[in-house]
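User: Thanks for the earlier help. One more: MerR family transcriptional regulator. Can you show the sequence and predicted structure together?

Assistant: Of course, both are below.
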Amino acid sequence: MRIAEIAALVGVTTRAVRHYHHLGLLPEPARRANGYRDYSVRDAVLLARIRRLTELGLALDEVRDVIADDAGRELTEVLGELDADLARQEAEIRARRARLAGLMESPPSAEGPVSPALARLLGAAPVIDSPMGAKDRELLILFDTAGGSEQFYEALHPLAESAELHGLYRRLDELADAAPDDPRIAPLADALIAAIPDEVLAAIPTAPGQPVVTGFGEALLADFAPAQAEVARLVMEALVAQTRTGEGGSS
């Protein structure tokens, strides 16, 4: 194959092929008597792998390291890995399209497109004029964007539809300017824990051995006023403790 042919086969430009030659990513092939490069199937496989790795976000020096690790492998093995990579891409694309279809079919929401399960939950919950209630909805939408669980949303319906939720949000709002040692904190945390349905605990994913507050949890607490953050911390600790107790009892 000539350079234009291998470039067209793999879906890159001839300029990209020459650039990869210059960087040493793609070895220069033997030349014909007329001086044209003569590319083989293995050259095409290597070029396709370079393209795939760059599309995955690897820098060219990282691509070079990966290719070096592949040196000496059989062509069938390299082809098999490329085929597996493509299969994973296809599966990811199908999953994204399925999620996109679900978003397009969801009822309109003021917060933008959400999954059907979350749309049902938000639609069932009464509109509450509460800053903490609004923050709760934002967190649910963030969770949904990250791939939220339909089981979790369904488990939240009894709480979302209860009149008790109004009072809990009001009590949280009242702590906006309170100190982190306010005496209302512990009773409110207890009330929130008691209001959470048992089904919600079963739907919360946990990782044994992890601290109660890490990563997202720390960012979440930092977004609250001090007294509200203390309530949230107590609730998070209790939920994790209850969930782990449940796991231990079922094993």
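User: Great, one quick takeaway?

Assistant: Residues 109-250 form one domain.
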